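Human: For the file, kindly provide a plain-text protein record giving the amino acid sequence and the C-alpha cells, at your earliest convenience.
Assistant:
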Amino acid sequence: MKKIYSLVLAAFAGAALSAQLTYTVSNGVYKLTYGKSGDWSFYDPQSNPTIYVHVWSAQSDGDNNQGNFDDAWSNSNTTMTWNDTEGAYLGTIDLNTKLFTNSNNTMSQGTIVQRIGIVFKNQQNGATVQSADRDLEGPTTLTTLAVSEVGSKTKSQVAAGKLFTSAKGNLDVTVYDFGGRVIKTLKVNANGNPVDLNLSQKGMYLMTISGNNISESVKFAY
C-alpha cells in the first residue's frame, strides 16, 4: 500500500475529526471510512494496510440498556483495510453478528444501540500505537436475523434460544455454528408453540428447517 501526501491532501490538514472518520449506520451496521481527507491526526496508521478497531458499548457508559458488550484489549476482531480505489481505510462493524471478545457475547436482534465506542490501534493483541476514544452515534436497531425462504416469506425466527415458526407438522431442525460444525439436530412436531433449542453456549448460529412444504435457513444470535 502506498499513500501519497500531496499538496492537495495537505490542504485538508486542519479538517474536523468528522472529515477524517466518516460513517453511516443502518440496522446495526456501521460502515466506516478513515483518512480520505489525508488528515492522520486522529490516528497515524504509519502505512500499515490494516487498522484494528477496539469496540465497546457498555451499560456503565450509558450507551445502551441491554447490558455490557466490549472487546478484550488482547483480541480486537474488527479491522479496517486500505482501499486504493477509495484512497482510504474502509471497515464495517456489524452488531448483528459481532462477537465481543471480552464479554464473550453478541447483541440480540431488536436491540436498540444509542452509540458505540471505538479505538484504533496497530495490533490485534494490544497496541504500540493507538488513537483516542471516539463515539459513533446511533441510535440504531439491530435487524431481525431470519433469512427469507424462497418466495420471500419468512416463517421462522429464534428469540431467547427458542424457535418460533408458523410451519406445522414434523420438521427436521439442524443447528450449526459459524464454523459449519453441527451443534444440534432435532425432530420437531410444530404446533404453534415455541420450541426450546436447549443451546448451552452463547454465540452466532445458523439453523436449517425442512419439512412438509418448508425449507428455510435462519441466522440468529443467542
